[in-house]
Amino acid sequence: AAINPFYAQNLTLYHVNPSNYTGIANMNTGDGSGDAFFDLKGYLTPMDCRSGHAYPGECENPEVDASDLVVTKITLEVDSRFADYGMCNICINNTVPLTFPPWHCTNGDYVCVCHSKIGHFEKPCGPRVGQENITEFFTRFRPQRSAPTTYWKYNLATRTGGFWYSTIDKGEGSSWRIVETQRKVNATCLKDGLYAKIYKMAGECFAACPDPADLTSDCITTCVFDALLGKTASHSINPTGGLSGEEIVALWIDSFNECPGL
Fold first, then answer.
1. Angle at 31 between CA 4 and CA 242, to 5 degrees
2. pTM of this prediction?
3. Residue 62: Cβ within 10 Å count
């Protein structure tokens, strides 16, 4: 069945994945704000993993740390009657990331898990496109730990906002279809461009770090988020300074647009 024209809506979305995967079946995408948030949140992963504040499976997420990541911009037609969002991840160690108890899967497959908004139990996803409001999801709970990464995620979600989407294979054609693949770029190029823009804002901070070239260090990470969100954002949910959400998202989209297409 085709998408019901009464509910049809076109979305411009971005997707991050290792280059050997194609399409978006059983995958997540985000609007510009949503993918900027996903990418920048990933900059916090090394710090979280070193400090023990990462979620199970987060430190081995191929969509964050694979060496051949690409970012693709697409036009997606969807049935706008959205359902519960599905977290779609690559199976690692025959286990679906972030499932409790663990779901079995085939290594390398993309698998989606939906969480009921009532009761928060895990369930298979239906055919409809899932939607997640990033600000609502990531600010449901005030940071309880003193870890700066916890505050940075909360404050970043407040600034950028945005939406994530899940597209399930059994909904292709009836709930969603790719209208156009607009552009694909190397994720390393995007990250390098984004760091270069942040360096222009916080070069003195970078230079004062023990190893200014180690972009995953706690010191550089602090420089990045001080510049983006203001220096109080590491310990307050009402930070001052930094950039507006629109400015942060524009840095990310400009970095994407400046990279050569693949």
1. 155
2. 0.95
3. 18
Residue 120 has pLDDT above 80, yes or no: no
List, for residues 147-172, the tens digit of each pLDDT value: 999 999 999 999 999 999 999 999 99
Question: Is it the case that residue 178 has pLDDT exceeding 80?
Answer: yes
- Amino acid 118: pLDDT: 64
- Only one residue has tokens 């003195």, namely 204
Residue 139 CB partners (closer than 8 Å, separation 6+): 154, 157, 158
